[in-house]
Specification:
The chain is mainly α. The protein has helices at about 5-10, 15-30, 40-55, 60-70. The chain is built from 4 helices and no strands.
């Protein structure tokens, strides 16, 4: 993957990046024998994805999470 492709991906809206990440993870799971998600895991992911799509601003960004984790590790 080129740097320009990565930059283009990073410029996508959060929901589109999330959908892309989900599609990539699903494609990896499809290639793995015996390591696919269980029905319960798939349900949990689908529920969380639906919440993110319904309330896209409710969550935290990765930089916000890292900042909280670094503060709590002190």
């Amino acid at each position: 993957m080129t740097q320009s492709t990565l930059r283009a991906i990073y410029r996508l809206p959060a929901q589109e990046r999330l959908r892309l990440a989900t599609d990539i993870l699903e494609s990896i799971a499809d290639e793995q024998d015996g390591s696919a998600l269980t029905p319960d895991e798939r349900l949990l992911i689908d529920e969380r994805l639906a919440l993110i799509e319904k309330h896209p601003r409710r969550g935290s960004t990765w930089p916000e999470v890292k900042k909280r984790l670094r503060r709590s590790a002190r």
